Amino acid sequence: MSTDRKWNFGAGPAMIPRPVLERAQQEFLNYNNSGLSLMELSHRSNTFEDLNNKTQNQLRQLLKIPSQYKIIFMQGGGHTQFAAVVYNLLAWRHHQNKQQGSGSGRWQDIPVDYVVTGSWSSKATEEAKRLGANVRVVCDAKPHFGSYKGIPAESTWTTSDPQGSLRTADHQAGQTPAYLYYCDNETVNGVEFPFIPSLQDPAVPLVCDMSSNILSRPVDISKFGVIYAGAQKNIGPAGVTVVIVREDLLQTSELTDGLSPVPLMLDFKTMVKNNSLYNTPPMFAIYISSLVFDWLLDPVAQRVQDGPQQPTNKDLVGVEAAVARNERKAAKLYKALEESRFCRIIVTDTAARSKMNIPFSISKAPKNDPNAFPNKAEDDAMEAAFVAQAEAKGLLQLAGHRSVGGVRASIYNAMPEEGVDVLIAFIKEFEQQYFL
Ligand code: PLP
């Protein structure tokens, strides 16, 4: 990488592939011979509509999204989806109940199930509660692991009662939950699901926040009701949020008793009906996302991203190219952290260690001595020195999330293996200063 670009290990907004930025720069003043910048075009122009459709089709191709799923580009980021899923899916379940003549008809009686495995699913749960939904936390990872350091087995969740009695009881009471919600990759805590939940009632759609690992590995879309992802980690710039929604979930009723109706800008049905052009969409963010998809689908660009050491991957594109590279990157970084004398990986459940966000703490206390007593002031100073020295070497944004502290390396698709190698070399070099 040339010296004018540094390595961005930030969790988001994250690194954008250099060839994407170069192409955007070339096209900045005159998009597609229109004589205007993309930002100046009408969102109702054929030129933009073509781009909007192309971007959707690219995503469909990359994630192998079946035809019964709709793709929407929304605004408001992940936080807005915390609310949007509550409104849309309660309105859908409410409609189902009315059709089947089951349930009391009050949306407050419809349960919504949440799996809490870290900061983001916890925030989504709080938002659902704030809106007055009947929230059931069916799994909370904190008591299992002391903090968010792993994913409890599905057999321990209260949805997955092996006898099915909980489900039957729900059905009888007309209280089938509107959805089961989880976050596939907890960006702050570095916990990533190694499985797709499968034991819940098949009548309950799975809703998943994939903001920080979408496109990093293949996913069977057919298992989900709704998937959403803010773009600013593994897709493109902040401003656009991708929503993938199963068509049948768009049948909704107007809710009464307070949560009525679904606000238009949160309404999946309105967005689908208008092909994401109900109002002025975040055009520039959609455009850059499309360039990122072009980059992922380009075999030459993917070979360059792999670097000269990986000739075996020369034919892979898209998610298949990304997953192979992401596994190599994460494996070598975890190994280096394990071998280091001062880095401690936070996530203890090894199967649930994220391949995208890798948090660790720093301590001079001997790692394998249970009686070693860490000196907090000394360790804090060491951590600050680590982040500052890394920055001076062009390794940016390694400080952990402000809510948990520590160090975190985010290594999304755009981070080449070379960037991870540079970080590993720095970890070894830093160690020399403290352990002679
Ligand atoms: N969900 C996940 C997994 C995230 O990582 C984030 C942000 O980092 C959010 C939701 C919130 O996204 P936004 O800042 O776009 O509202």
From TrEMBL:
UniProt KW keywords: Amino-acid biosynthesis, Aminotransferase, Pyridoxal phosphate, Serine biosynthesis, Transferase
Keyword Amino-acid biosynthesis set for record: yes
Pathway recorded for this protein: Amino-acid biosynthesis; L-serine biosynthesis; L-serine from 3-phospho-D-glycerate: step 2/3
Pfam families with a match to the protein in the record: Aminotran_5 (PF00266)
Enzyme category, top tier: transferase
Reported cofactor(s): pyridoxal 5'-phosphate
Catalytically driven reaction(s): O-phospho-L-serine + 2-oxoglutarate = 3-phosphooxypyruvate + L-glutamate; 4-(phosphooxy)-L-threonine + 2-oxoglutarate = (R)-3-hydroxy-2-oxo-4-phosphooxybutanoate + L-glutamate
GO annotation terms (biological process): L-serine biosynthetic process
InterPro entries hit by this protein: Aminotrans_V_dom, Aminotrans_V_PyrdxlP_BS, Pser_aminoTfrase, PyrdxlP-dep_Trfase, PyrdxlP-dep_Trfase_major, PyrdxlP-dep_Trfase_small
GO MF annotation: an example: pyridoxal phosphate binding
Domain spans labelled Aminotransferase class V: 7-94, 157-423
Keyword Hydrolase: no
Known EC number: 2.6.1.52
Gene3D superfamilies to which the protein is assigned, alphabetical: Aspartate Aminotransferase, domain 1, Type I PLP-dependent aspartate aminotransferase-like (Major domain)
A cellular component annotation (GO) from this entry: cytoplasm
Database matches in PANTHER family: PHOSPHOSERINE AMINOTRANSFERASE
Family designation: Belongs to the class-V pyridoxal-phosphate-dependent aminotransferase family. SerC subfamily.
Cross-referenced NCBIfam families: PRK05355.1
Protein name according to UniProt: phosphoserine transaminase
Gene source species: Modicella reniformis
